[in-house]
Amino acid sequence: MSNSTVSNSGYSKHLEFYTYTVTFLVEDCLFRITRGPLEAESTVFRDMFLLPQGDPETIEGQSDACPVILQGVSKNEFESLLRALMYRLVQHGANRGSDLDHEQWISVLKLSTMWDFHGLRNAAVSHPDTPPQPLDPIDKLELALQYDIREWLLPALLALARRSAPISVEEGRRIGFENALKLASVREKLQLGTVEETVRPRRRDGGMAPAYEYSTPSRCLVLGDRDKEAEKLDYTPFIRKAFDL
Predict the structure, then answer these.
(1) pLDDT beneath 70: ranges in the chain
(2) Strand, helix or coil at 145?
(3) Which ranges of 56-149 would DSSP assign to H, the alpha helix?
(4) How many CB atoms lie within 10 A of CB 3?
(5) What is the C-alpha end-to-end distance of the chain, expressed in Å?
(6) What are phi and psi of 205, to 5 degrees?
(7) Which of 11, 35, 80, 216 is a good FRET partner for 189, with 20 to 30 A between their CA atoms?
(8) Is the peptide bond prior to 52 cis by the omega test (within 30 degrees of 0)?
(9) DSSP string, 50-80
(10) pLDDT the model gives residue 188
């Protein structure tokens, strides 16, 4: 193979196998990646790359000396996004199966929402309920409110309405006190029920009287921790009404 240097002025660029790269600076780390997946998956990056180009020496992203600087993004978050993006590229759009953990998927959710990666956002939304450890309901509700994920709202609210522990002050701060008060009102939708008890009178000698039996209503209300039976109740109608779902 020849080592001679040639000028590219007279050559065409292959439509498929001539790759354009872009360099990003995130915190103190440079990333250089191919532009193709970014353009294919993100409308934000696609529009950015369509902007008029000036002097190649000063175009942002063309070299390590002049990278695209990403503000408000951590190195770990951007790395998580790229890992998920490249996995989709290799797996032809598959949304599951990568080795990202919960925190990394949350990073993917944040950046995919920010930069309009619709496929990656769908992948991140589908991840939290997968084994081995589903996302905690309060975390799920907080993220659903922050990133406008409506399909997470009802399951998270239902889990919180059913649990025995009340909503704490710290949890109220995380989900907003208005939402915490709405959730508290849903949790209070327990009522004192009437239970019919069948009574068969006993004879004084200890035997059962065969002649008749009757039913009597029984109502009981006591102080104490929330009964575990509340975890089986369906608060869905009250949640839909309180949160307009």
Answers:
(1) 1-9, 52-57, 89-98, 128-132, 190-225, 227
(2) helix
(3) 75-90, 102-114, 118-126, 137-147
(4) 4
(5) 66
(6) -85, 5
(7) 216
(8) no
(9) TSPP--TTTSTTSBTTBPEE-TT--HHHHHH
(10) 85
